[in-house]
Amino acid sequence: MKKDIILNGKNFGNKEADFGKDEILAAIKERYVDGGLNYMSIKPFGKYMEPENVREWVKYLAENKIYFAFNYATQRAPEGEDSALSAELIADMKEIAGEYYLGELFGETGSQYACKLPGYYVDLGGVAKSNNISADEMYLNDEDP
């Protein structure tokens, strides 16, 4: 039987945050595991995240039954990149964390922080409308949305 879940958590990340492996693992333990939370929104804010570190974080999150998603990984990608998440890393997170990996959230749909990737918006006679496609679909499919 499929059950509904209730997520209780908070954001991690800001412009000053260090996304080193040890800082994230310590924050997960202190804020989420010890704090009794079951959801983490990770906001890299344009910072590069070492893929091997991310794999360790998501393993730890899943082991502790903490759901997680990324926010602003695409909208505020590291300089010269389309996203802080690669197709390979997304596939690895899905395999490592299973149901605990919820994907990427697009937190803005019309401001200066909105996703800028081609195909995310369609022009309806001068009115932009989101295609409501996920980051996973953008990176894992070669077809235009």
Topology:
Elements: E1 9-12, H1 21-33, E2 39-42, H2 51-63, E3 67-71, H3 87-97, E4 101-105, E5 121-123, E6 128-130, H4 135-140
Helix pairs in contact: 1-2, 2-3
Describe the structure.
The structure is a single chain. The protein has 145 residues and is α/β, with parallel strands linked by helices. The protein has one domain (9-140). It has 4 helices and 6 strands. The chain has helices at 21-33, 51-63, 87-97, 135-140; strands at 9-12, 39-42, 67-71, 101-105, 121-123, 128-130. α1 (21-33) runs parallel beside α2 (51-63).
Q: What's a concise summary of this model?
A:
The protein contains 4 helices and 6 strands. The protein is α/β, with parallel strands linked by helices.
Main attributes of the structure:
30% helix; disordered C terminus; four-stranded parallel β-sheet; 4 helices; single chain; two-stranded antiparallel sheet; 145 residues
In DSSP terms (H or I, runs of 4 or more residues), the helix count works out at 4
Specify the overall morphology: globular
Q: Percent range for helical residues?
A: 25-40%
Structural class: alpha/beta
Terminal residue distance: 33 Å
Mean pLDDT: 75
Order of helices and strands: EHEHEHEEEH
Biggest sheet, spatial arrangement of strands: 1-2-3-4
β-strand number: 6
Measured by DSSP, the beta-strand proportion falls in 15-25%
